[in-house]
Amino acid sequence: MPEDICTERPLYGGSISSTFPVRFQDVSNIRQVPDHQEAFVDPSRDESLIFELLDLKPDVNDNGSAVWFLQDLANEQDAQGFTLVEQSGVVEVPIGNVSVVVTTAIGQMGISKARQGREAQNVVQVYLANLRLKNVGTDVLVVGYEPILISPLSESAATVGAGLPAPAAQSGFLPMAEGKVAMITGGDSIIGKFVCYHFALEGATVAFTYVESIED
């Protein structure tokens, strides 16, 4: 039975790092990815993991910001049948003199591949974490996509198979499962002139590290 092996990978030229299963392949090796994104995919399960750095949206309230971004993703992808499954409250994570606001949301929606129409939409569960780094004017999104129903007309059916995908745990893989954000490694750590913010997306075992340079 296959087992997930996780490794730390540098993102955005090393200013951010993340630890997740090696089965997720770097999409930039296949096609061009926008500079503000890092994208990874497991073709055998049609699962993907996206990291996105955005300018802070000051008009979006902290309470429910993850839901706002989840609905925005649904609109961008022309998704059908959007359903909000779960959302968290606001968690403020104090790190030194900085407070990072964290919210999460889980939703289901119908999404088709870029080259296919709505008749080929798959039903996908989307796990989204929004980390609001207000001191540097940045909204960080960590988004996991997990198909729960593959259309026989989707190009994904050729590799994953149509219908209900086999549960990740049944195949020996780590499921995205809860899709919640938790702080790990005991909080902040000082490394030279850097402060590291450590987070994890439970279930998918995603560790996210934001590194901010400290001025003298």
From TrEMBL:
<dbReference type="GO" id="GO:0005085">
    <property type="term" value="F:guanyl-nucleotide exchange factor activity"/>
</dbReference>
<dbReference type="InterPro" id="IPR016123">
    <property type="entry name" value="Mog1/PsbP_a/b/a-sand"/>
</dbReference>
<dbReference type="GO" id="GO:0005634">
    <property type="term" value="C:nucleus"/>
</dbReference>
<protein>
    <recommendedName>
        <fullName>Ran guanine nucleotide release factor</fullName>
    </recommendedName>
</protein>
<dbReference type="InterPro" id="IPR007681">
    <property type="entry name" value="Mog1"/>
</dbReference>
<dbReference type="GO" id="GO:0031267">
    <property type="term" value="F:small GTPase binding"/>
</dbReference>
<dbReference type="InterPro" id="IPR036291">
    <property type="entry name" value="NAD(P)-bd_dom_sf"/>
</dbReference>
<comment type="similarity">
    <text>Belongs to the MOG1 family.</text>
</comment>
<dbReference type="GO" id="GO:0006606">
    <property type="term" value="P:protein import into nucleus"/>
</dbReference>
<keyword id="KW-0653">Protein transport</keyword>
<dbReference type="Pfam" id="PF04603">
    <property type="entry name" value="Mog1"/>
</dbReference>
<keyword id="KW-0813">Transport</keyword>
